[in-house]
Amino acid sequence: MASWLERRLLGYVSPDLGSCAFYGSVLFIGLTMVRSTLASMFQGQTPDLQVHTESGKFRADSVSWTAAGMRGWRPAMEDAHVCEMLDASTFPDVGLFAVLDGHGGAEVSALAKRLLSQHVLACAREQQTPGDANPKTWTPSLAEALEKSLPRLDALMRAGLFASARLLPGILHPFYHEGSTACVAAVDFARKEIITANIGDSRGILIRKGKAIALSEDHKPEDPKERRRIENAGGRVVKIGPCWRVDGNLNLSRALGDFHLKDTHTLPPEKQKVSAFPDITRTLYQEDSQELLVMACDGLFERKENQDIADIVWPRFQKGMALEQIAQELLHACCAKSYRGQPAEMGTDNETVVIVKLPSTEVKQIADPP
Predict the structure, then answer these.
(1) Residue 117 lies in a domain
(2) What pLDDT was estimated at residue 36?
(3) Which DSSP helix (H) or strand (E) runs through 19?
């Protein structure tokens, strides 16, 4: 039986290579099933309200941040986050903050976490041409680098290591039914600007004096622009329960991975039913003590809107509460309460948030000399 399947699925490659690909795929699928079974057996209490935090400071401690995640009602944690300064030789004063909300597994979000900054930098360096007059003063476009990095990362995931995934029939691709959102904010501290690239329904928010300013818009199948692309690619937008879904499956319309919804071979990647091409926004911040950057996955927005998040975060920040404590109380406030072991309201997804205290310049008045 295995030999027959091997011939049917991989008859177009050499026998040795086909056998390696086939049995490697069988092993991967088997290990995935075993891992899922073990995870369900040893997942512990539900909901899991333990919050895992990571904190740090950049730019001589002028920028402080906290990233916090909580499994909640889901059997496993599938989110990831990025908080780092980019290589100063390409971007001298830029911080990268992102939330990556995985679905169908944690591998796509984990891989994106590991590779995101590398691809942003690679896309920036490719902008330089031999004709640039003075390489020492050449400045790459941060917005362009962000815009190109996510589709590039998606293409790499599809090809696999040394293009090995191209040997596998679609259904055997490890990310065929697995994907991740990506909401990425690059803070250019020199220009006091936040450039946000978004695919999916995670969000970026700038809180300014308690007011929420949206840095991204959700990509949902029912949105007119998204629906047109989906239907032009031969897909359907179907409402199941409270959510609209692509082909009755995915309830967002842009993501990394999810290659079963990117399989219309006559169309380019940006016109597939699900796209990894981001929208870009540019927002100036004021560099005073009244601003916070918040990046969060959609687990927080099942029950809360942007201003609701600001109304939780801002009063606590004003009272001097540590960012770690603010993040923990925010995640707990967005998680569904339990009734007889079942969720009694919305808020059953994994939850991840990144809170960044942007740098401030305190203006001191100097008295006129006598």
Answers:
(1) yes
(2) 52
(3) helix 15-41
